[in-house]
Structure formats: C-alpha cells, structure tokens
Amino acid sequence: MGYLELVQGDPGRAEYLDSLGWAHFRRGDLEEAEKYLSPAAAQLPRSAEVQDHLGDLLARRGRWQDAITAWTRALEGEGEEIDRGSIEKKITDARARLR
Questions:
Q1: How far is residue 32's CA from residue 24's CA, in Å, rounded to a whole number?
Q2: CATH code for the structural domain at 3-98
Q3: Any idea what DSSP says for residue 79?
Q4: Would you say 48 and 80 are in contact if contact means Cβ atoms under 8 Å apart?
C-alpha cells in the first residue's frame, strides 16, 4: 500500500497531516502547509518534530510570537531526536525580531 492510499484511508491522522504540510512548506505553499500543520500540531502537542515544523511555518509567515510558542513546545516535547541548539537559535532570532 502506498502513501497516498494510507492518507486516503485515514486523512485526519496527525502524522500524515504533518508530512503533507511539511511537503507544502518545502515547496513554498505556505497557505496549504498551514491547513495541514496546524491540525497536526493540535493533535500532537507533545511531538517535538511536529511543533518544530509548525514553528518554522509560522516564522516564515511572520508570526514570530506564535513560532516561539511552537518551538518552545518542541523543546519540551518528546518522541523524536531534535536539534535543540537549532531550535534554541530560532527562538533567539525570533525574539530579536519582536523588539
């Protein structure tokens, strides 16, 4: 069974939403990415990877405070190996933009 069949069989599953949203983000389609990443992050608030993806999207859209919140959840999250230093730098850079 291919990825598309899995998604079609369970389209609301957070892991699939995250993957689809991240693919749209990487293509530069931020509006479409948010349609998938926001519900994925809501379903998986403790997933470091999903919260990091949402933070990246929100930052790209200029929503710095929301991005900081998502990245902070990523640092507090669980389940995945994340680059803590990279996320901490993103938070520092975003805070500088808020000044």
A1: 6
A2: 1.25.40.10
A3: S
A4: yes
